[in-house]
Amino acid sequence: MPGPAVEAAARGGGGDHGHVHDHDHDGGGGKGAADWEKTYLDVLGICCTAEVALVERLLAPIDGVRAITVVVPSRTVIVEHDAAAVSQFHIVKVLNKAGLEASVRAYGSGGAGAGGRWPSPFIVACGALLLASLFAPLLPPLRWLAVAAACVGAQPMLLRAFAAAGKLTLDINILMLIAVAGAVALGSYTEAGAIVFLFTVAEWLETLAYTKASAGMLSLMSAVPKTVVLAETGQVVGLRDVAVGAVVAVRAGEVVPVDGVVVGGQSEVDESSLTGESMPVPKHPHSEVWAGTMNLDGYIAVRTTALAENSTVAKMERLVEEAQNSRSKTQRLIDSCAKYYTPAVVVLGAGVVLVPLLLGARDLKHWFRLSLVLLVSACPCALVLSTPVATFCALLREARMGLLIKGGSVLESLGEIRIAAFDKTGTITRGEFSISAFSVVGDKVELSQLLYWVSSIESKSSHPMAAALVEYSQSKCIQPKPENVTEFCIYHGEGIYGAIEGKDIYIGNERVLARSSCQHQTDDAGLNNKEGVSTTGHVICDGDLVGVFSLSDDCRTGAAEAIRQLRSMGIKSVLLTGDSAAAAKRAQEQLGGVLEELHAGLLPEDKVRLVGDLKARAGPTLMVGDGMNDAPALAAADVGVSMGLSGSAAAVETSHAALMSGDVLRVPAAVRLGRRARRTIAANVAASVGAKAGVLALSLAWRPVLWVAVLADVGTCLLVVLHSMLLLRVRDHPQQGRACGSKPGRPCCATAKAKSPAARCQSAGAPKKIAAVRVHQAGRLAGGEKAKDCHCCPKQGGKAPEGSVVIAIPAAKDAAGGCCGGGVGKASCDAASNNYPTTSTPAAGEDEVCVVISARSPCCSKARSRSGSPKDAAGAAGCKDGAMCCSGGGGRDGGMSSALVC
Ligand SMILES: Nc1ncnc2c1ncn2[C@@H]1O[C@H](COP(=O)(O)OP(=O)(O)OP(=O)(O)O)[C@@H](O)[C@H]1O
Ligand SMILES: [Zn+2]
Question: What is the ipTM of this complex?
Answer without folding.
Answer: 0.95
